[in-house]
Amino acid sequence: MKRKVRDEPGYKPIAILNEVQRKYGVELKYYTAWRCKEKTMYDIHGDESNCYDKLRRYCRALKLNNPGSCADYEIDPQAQKFLRIFISFGNSILNFHRGCRQMICLDGTHIKNKYKGCLLSAVSKDPNDELYTLAYAIVDAENDRNWEWFCNKLKEILVYQNGGLLKNYTIFSDRHSGLIKAIPLAAIAPTRQEFEEHISLIVQSMPRAESFIRDLDPNRWANAYFSGDRWGIMNSNQVDCWNGWVKDERSLPVPSMIDAIRIKIMKMIGNR
């Protein structure tokens, strides 16, 4: 199974069970298949519990060999446990300023390895309207504290490459996981009058939603009230595409995950 797991890190023990049954007619217990997957991951990537020590060396090597890159790694000083790591490559930052739209999509997705965590990302679109990776981070959890840290790091690289000045950027994000389905009907209203008409229809059909909708700042999600540039984008689907693009890598130990994403970014830029 080693070749299969190396090509598909997200290959699950249940898939191992099914493949062994189909190929050889042998029925394995789930625990046996799970041990097979664990042993294979160990042979390929080493001991996952000790792999976080590699991140310090990785950050130093990245800054040394890829000038202009940002690679910051933090641990809990008391517990001596991994907290988070932020990665943005020098050329990714430089070319974002040279030709990408002044818009950034932010999102987080769950990591599927043994120790879990969350993968945060900042992506944009290049002049050909294709997905562009600006930065990503691995954190212990998706919470306000880690998002604030991520955004501050993002601000640092944007200001540094722009001569100490911060341009106006349009930020797209999925701010609430539980938005009611009817709200997008109002989000595409081009005028305030149409917006209010749509909202009235929603409130009539769902009275309990009124306070929820009214408490949201329409400047941040409704076309009719948004004063910035939307760059022709109505949602954050592009960052969802990025999450799917790194689906297999999210099953790897953290150092391997970071480097596998680096390789994917390099190949994408090379192909373009």
Protein model, in words:
- By secondary structure, the protein is of the alpha+beta class.
- It folds into 3 domains: 2-45, no CATH class; 49-174 and 236-271, no CATH class; 176-233, no CATH class.
- Helices cover 46% and strands 16% of the residues.
- The chain contains 11 helices and 6 strands.
- It has helices at residues 2-7, 13-24, 30-45, 54-65, 90-99, 144-160, 183-187, 192-205, 210-215, 237-245, 254-271, and strands spanning 70-76, 81-88, 103-110, 118-125, 131-139, 170-173.
- It has a 6-stranded mixed β-sheet, with helices on both faces.
- Strand 4 and strand 5 (131-139) form a beta hairpin.
- Helix 2 packs across helix 3.
- It is globular.
- The two termini are 33 Å apart.
- The model is unreliable at 176-185 (pLDDT under 50).
What's the topology here?
Blueprint: H1 2-7, H2 13-24, H3 30-45, H4 54-65, E1 70-76, E2 81-88, H5 90-99, E3 103-110, E4 118-125, E5 131-139, H6 144-160, E6 170-173, H7 183-187, H8 192-205, H9 210-215, H10 237-245, H11 254-271
Parallel strand pairs: 3-6
Antiparallel strand pairs: 1-2, 2-5, 3-4, 4-5
Helix pairs in contact: 2-3
